[in-house]
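Dock 5-O-phosphono-beta-D-ribofuranosylamine; give full complex structure.
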Amino acid sequence: MPTETAQPKTRVAVLISGSGTNMASLIAAGQVADAPYEVAVVVSNVASVAGLDRARAAGVEALTVEHGSYGKDREAHERAIDALLIQHKVEVVALAGYMRLLTPWLVQKWAGRMINIHPSLLPLYPGLNTHARALESGDAEAGCTVHVVTEGVDEGPVLGQARVPILPGDTPDALAERVKAAEHRLYPQTLAAFAKRRPRSGP
Ligand code: GRF
């Protein structure tokens, strides 16, 4: 009887700037035996953030490329990150709390192969302070969105969304916590579905 050859897992890089709780959920889901992807490397633009320790504790290589060393040359910083992605044979890039605006150069380089998670139901509330803005608007629900990265900030085709209720007396922090829990479920599922489509064109 012919044996089925397992597809190699899609190699994912996660870019972070902070605590990396979404990154941790992506790593864990990718470590399951039949997951369609694996996190091959984590890159932070800020030294000593908790996400780097979390990644290493999960057995994933975690590197820092500090943006400060590149002054105003954002593209040079991205070229240094990109070199690491190539070195690690990365096929898909997942932004997870990466707090730098990307230049068109990096976005174009990874067009169709870079995704992001945003803590709102896009197109509502792109940018910062999403939870406070949802509360101020009197919305009945909030949520999170995973989308393909394009040149516009928090734009790009939506791959998946999860909704949570807004409850009486909610504060931005309480709502953020509820949304975070939804993010940790949505992002791994959406990345797995995206990886199964195997965006293969090389860098
Ligand atoms: C998340 O809320 C994500 O939606 C946003 O940045 C935050 C990162 O949190 N892009 P964490 O570092 O994954 O905990």
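Observed: Helices lie at 21-30, 50-57, 74-87, 104-109, 130-136, 172-196.
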